[in-house]
Amino acid sequence: MRVLSLKGRNSTEAEALLARLQNRSNASYERVMPVAQRIVASVQKGGDATLLRHRSKLDGLPVTVPLEVPFEEMEAAWQEMTPALQAAMKLAANNIRRFAEKQRPRDFSMRIVPGVMVGQKVIPLDSVGCYVPSGRYPLPSTMLMTVIPAQVAGVRRIIAVSPKPARETLAAAYLCGVAAFYRIGGAQAIAALAYGTESIAKVDKIVGPGNAYVTAAKKLVSFDCGIDMLAGPTEIVVASEQGDPEGIAADIAAQAEHDPDAMAMLVTSQRELARLVAASVKERVKSSATAREALAANGAVIVAKSVEQAREITNQLAPEHLTVDSVDDLAWVRNAGSVFVGPWSSQPLGDYVSGPNHTLPTNAVGRLRGGLSVMDYVKLVTVQEYKSEGVKKLGPAAMLLAEAEGLLAHADAVRVRVKKAGGRRG
């Protein structure tokens, strides 16, 4: 793992790397956009038959394999799990549910002035589609992370899709109580969820990570169907001045093994910490070609000129996962998907069992939003109620503003109420 200093001989290389990563984009999905566009259009037009043909060609599943996963298959998969794994899944599911319940927004009402009540009503989406990848690694944790917040939000129809779900993913679906699980993936699955087919009713929103084709398809359908975010390869930044070198290196290696395009970095002003972490990472990734490729392309230890510069670099990177030394560091953190505090807070714990969602913004989208949450599954609908007293109080100001904008019918609609309420302005 490279050690690049912002002071000294290789400062130019460090600055160039940071400039590229601070302005990174998920270019991989743009490269496959033409193919994804053809797939999406064909499924939108051809329905189940086209969906099955794409599945046969791209995932190797015979067209005779039903689209929907039978409940009995999910139940059997659950029974095949060891008691220890069942207990771990239950623990994770319980913590995810507890966190989502705490996170859920609430209805409220308030009196702005006498005679005027305003408020908010939290209404769940009618339907969502949860995409669960099954490529390089099976991801039953993503089933839990996408389905459970939807359940907490009160979504009435929750669909899960996965191209070749592993037994562990099927077991997680059973644990969640997923009512509809379809054995489809890729851009064709996104098209089916967004537009519907004979067997799959379209949904209001699609959530969950996927490969470049999935991401491209989500972008293509995003004006017709809600999406959570365009998530790219995983990212880790550790911003540390006094961390444990072995722990930092272990977390960097863990995230780097996800994807050859992963971003993995330590940002520090401490040269000795930088040296120790780089050496430890080198040893830990010897057995992972994926991690070594990721670190060669998008990995480095950056030695900043000062603590303040290290913090500013971290915020500019806006990483998916961020580790800091202590709770006090939260005061300077502005941009991150999820923050892990202190040497004991290994990032993979957050991937599985702590409760906060592991579907997080990448490609610096942490500047704009946080991770997937129960908020992604609800609508905040505002409510207003006027009495005559409130119309007399606020009506004249509303008429003045409407007239200033030249919207005379707006002003007249308020004037009707003001007159009936006995207000003065005619």
Describe, in plain words, how this protein is organized in 3D:
With 426 residues, the chain is α/β, with parallel strands linked by helices. The strands form three sheets. The chain has a six-stranded parallel β-sheet, with helices on both faces. It has a five-stranded parallel β-sheet with strand order 6-5-4-7-8, sandwiched between helices. The chain folds into three domains: 3-26 and 232-355, Rossmann fold (3-Layer(aba) Sandwich); 29-231, Rossmann fold, CATH 3.40.50; 387-421, no CATH class. 48% of the residues lie in helices and 16% in strands. Helix 8 (186-195) packs parallel to helix 9 and helix 15 packs antiparallel against helix 16 (408-421). It is built from 16 helices and 14 strands.
**Beginning-to-end CA distance, first to last residue:** 76 Å
**Count, helices:** 16
Major beta sheet, strand line-up: 1-11-10-9-12-13
Low-confidence stretches: none
Mean pLDDT: 95
Characterize the largest beta sheet: strand count, sense, and whether it forms a barrel.
6 strands, parallel
CATH superfamily of the largest domain: Nitrogenase molybdenum iron protein domain
Estimated helix fraction? 40-55%
**Could you say which structural class the secondary elements and strand pairing correspond to?**
alpha/beta
Indicate the CATH class of the largest domain. Answer: Alpha Beta
Question: What CATH architecture of the largest domain would you give?
Answer: 3-Layer(aba) Sandwich
